[in-house]
DNA sequence: AAGCATGGTGAATAATTTATCACCAGATGA
DNA sequence: TCATCTGGTGATAAATTATTCACCATGCTT
């Protein structure tokens, strides 16, 4: 992280939500973890396009913000599992709703941006 | 806009939603417009921190994506009003939910980032 | 003519986020 | 010893987004 030029407005729910969840992979990460994929290695494999480093960073931010927690099992090879905190779980209905909305909007957006109908 | 390096995944609702709504001011803008603030000048005044240029850009993106529409009244001085399309309106419950969640999470985030309780 | 209000745009830059690359460490098996 | 698996980090580059600044135009008022 770094020092933001414009600080978070704690009075504004949208500002707060954007701070903790408004980045490229976070919704996706929370979604996958809620589905049972908990290990970093598995998440890298499950999520198309994310890299190890980026995953680590976003996981650690989610952990810092209290949406994720992790457990380290002293096995060999080392096993680490991330899981949702209550705050993280409280976000699931929202993530689901956003996903639903996006699915419904996809064909419209495709027409707008590419000028053709989708076959979905 | 520009040509994205990584294209939108139309199969993924989260990806689609992030594309049209995942930027700093869009939730806020849709929220204000739904509350009846429709003119660019009024939006600049209503939203703390946004500038004229940024407002114009985000409004035009929302318009391009089909969440907003605008009407030009040939008055003097010129009057322009933006309003929500049905797609834009379908987003309102979600924005409200995100805002609610953020409000509920604010005090926790404040403790985490600043180490002190809020007085809200 | 000058100043103001409206809505708008292009170019350049700053700020921020994401990605790439090269590493480290522990323990295991070949 | 060397390669492999795991999870992890620092430095840097690239991509993306947001902001600043300087403009344009119209038609009013002074």
Brief overview, please?
Two copies of one chain form a homodimer. Chain A is mainly α and 120 residues long.
Task: Describe this protein's structure.
Chains A, B: Keywords: DNA-binding, Transcription, Transcription regulation. The structure is a homodimer of 120-residue chains. The first copy, chain A, has 120 residues and is mainly alpha-helical. Chain A is built from 6 helices and 2 strands, in the order H-H-H-H-E-E-H-H. Chain A is globular and about 55 Å long. The mean pLDDT of chain A is 90. The interface between A and B is large, with 48 and 48 residues. Chain B binds a DNA duplex (30 and 30 nucleotides) through helix 4.
Topology:
The structure is a homodimer of 120-residue chains.
Chain A: H1 13-21, H2 26-34, H3 40-46, H4 52-64, E1 68-73, E2 79-84, H5 86-89, H6 92-114
Antiparallel strand pairs in A: 1-2
Chain B binds a DNA duplex (30 and 30 nucleotides) through residues 2, 4-6, 23-25, 39-41, 51-54, 56-58, 60, 72, 75-80.
């Amino acid at each position: 992280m770094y020092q933001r030029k414009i600080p978070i407005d704690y009075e504004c729910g949208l500002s707060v939500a954007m701070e903790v969840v408004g980045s490229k992979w976070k919704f996706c990460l929370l979604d996958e973890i809620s589905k049972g994929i908990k290990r970093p290695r598995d998440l890298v494999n499950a999520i198309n396009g994310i890299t190890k480093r980026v995953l680590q960073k976003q996981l650690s931010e989610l952990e810092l913000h209290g949406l994720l927690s992790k457990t380290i099992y002293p096995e060999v090879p080392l096993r680490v599992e991330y899981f949702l905190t209550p705050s993280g779980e409280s976000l699931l209905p929202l993530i689901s709703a956003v996903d639903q909305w996006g699915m419904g909007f996809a064909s419209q957006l495709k027409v707008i941006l590419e000028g053709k109908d989708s076959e979905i």
